[in-house]
């Protein structure tokens, strides 16, 4: 009897009061809501994909919203106009001269990624002598590895992760100016020298129209809005800063995503770069551009039938979709890393300098 009374008292002692239980439940619900809210980019992308599946005529080329103008020009122009408003021109000029950063990003994008992809393709070829895996897909993966980095998402993701937005902006401009000339020749060069890949090694397409369209888009949707934003910032610096801060204008660039110094010797290549530049490199290096990749693919291989070209384009679409999802999660990783680096530097260093990574 005494033991039973003791057990009852013990149970009552460990019972959670209703008020505390309610508070704990509210905290759990709040944490869940905040987590879901932070995933709005992925959720939004999923919603857009579903809407595109059920309403394909809305955003297709020549569709209801005329996406070839409203998205490729309008949305991208908005992103780079905001970047022009936000970035000091001195910082842009500094990164234009940052040749170490140029070498790091462009070598990673045009040399390292194609090398890795080519190794993977050769492993697949060695393990699939009977051709069960469509060679058009393998050619598409090699082509994807050779196209330049994407434009808008790199800038948006770098900004969201507290990286160096100016560095990302300069690197994507350089990559997309070089890409139309490098990608075609580089793809044909690294394709396996076997009869299976002969249709793609003998590309004879006329690239003049593609070059004209690409540079027209870069000029109107990237360079012009950037220059206009810089002019507005230069003429009204204080007012521009107030408006950007008050209305959280840089966040609009993320929504629109849907719809360093002179020559000083070879040893300077291995000099450490800042954490902010590191974040920009991590986003710009492995990313690839659908906006340039798809037009270039269709322009390069005019002699290949439409169905084969469509299969070749599948890796481009898959890679660029997956990179947005992966980059979204890495935004949070880089935010924590950036915060911890600065906290350590503030605690451990008297000079306030922050060391980056190679």
TrEMBL record:
InterPro entries per record: Na+/solute_symporter_sf (IPR038770), Put_Na-Bile_cotransptr (IPR016833)
Record-linked Gene3D superfamilies: 1.20.1530.20
Segments passing through the bilayer: 33-55, 70-87, 99-125, 137-156, 168-191, 218-236
Report if keyword Transmembrane is assigned. Answer: yes
Q: Which segments does the entry list as coiled coil?
A: none
Pfam families reported for this sequence: SBF_like (PF13593)
Q: Which UniProt keywords apply?
A: Membrane, Transmembrane, Transmembrane helix
Highest taxon, organism lineage: Eukaryota
Q: Name one GO cellular component term.
A: plasma membrane
Transmembrane helix among keywords: yes
Protein name stated in the entry? Uncharacterized protein
Native species of this protein?
Answer: Aspergillus tanneri
Q: What is the lineage of its organism?
A: Eukaryota, Fungi, Dikarya, Ascomycota, Pezizomycotina
């Amino acid at each position: 009897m005494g033991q039973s009374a003791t057990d009852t008292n013990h149970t009552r002692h460990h019972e959670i009061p209703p008020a505390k239980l309610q508070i704990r439940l509210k905290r759990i619900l709040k944490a869940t809501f905040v987590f879901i809210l932070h995933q709005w980019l992925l959720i939004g992308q999923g919603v857009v994909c579903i809407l595109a599946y059920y309403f394909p005529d809305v955003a297709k080329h020549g569709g209801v919203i005329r996406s070839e103008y409203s998205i490729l020009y309008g949305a991208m122009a908005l992103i780079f106009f905001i970047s022009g408003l936000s970035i000091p021109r001195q910082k842009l000029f500094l990164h234009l001269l940052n040749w170490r950063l140029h070498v790091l990003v462009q070598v990673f994008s045009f040399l390292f990624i194609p090398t890795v992809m080519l190794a993977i393709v050769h492993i697949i070829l060695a393990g699939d002598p009977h051709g069960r895996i469509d060679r058009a897909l393998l050619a598409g993966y090699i082509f994807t590895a050779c196209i330049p980095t994407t434009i808008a998402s790199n800038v948006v993701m770098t900004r969201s992760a507290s990286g160096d937005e100016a560095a990302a902006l300069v690197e994507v401009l350089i990559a997309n100016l070089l890409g139309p000339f490098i990608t075609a020749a580089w793809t044909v060069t690294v394709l396996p020298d076997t009869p299976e890949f002969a249709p793609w090694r003998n590309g004879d397409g006329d690239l003049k129209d593609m070059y004209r369209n690409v540079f027209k888009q870069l000029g109107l949707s990237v360079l012009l809005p950037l220059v206009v934003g810089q002019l507005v910032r230069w003429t009204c610096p204080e007012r521009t800063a107030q408006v950007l801060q008050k209305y959280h204008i840089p966040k609009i660039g993320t929504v629109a995503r849907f719809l360093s110094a002179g020559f000083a010797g070879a040893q300077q290549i291995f000099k450490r770069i800042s954490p902010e530049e590191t974040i920009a490199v991590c986003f710009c290096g492995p990313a690839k551009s659908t906006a340039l990749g798809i037009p270039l693919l269709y322009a390069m291989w005019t002699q290949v039938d439409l169905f084969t070209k469509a299969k070749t384009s599948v890796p481009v679409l898959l890679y660029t979709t997956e990179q947005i999802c992966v980059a979204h999660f890495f935004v949070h990783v880089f935010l924590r890393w950036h915060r911890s680096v600065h906290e350590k530097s503030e605690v451990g260093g008297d000079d306030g300098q922050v060391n980056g990574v190679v």
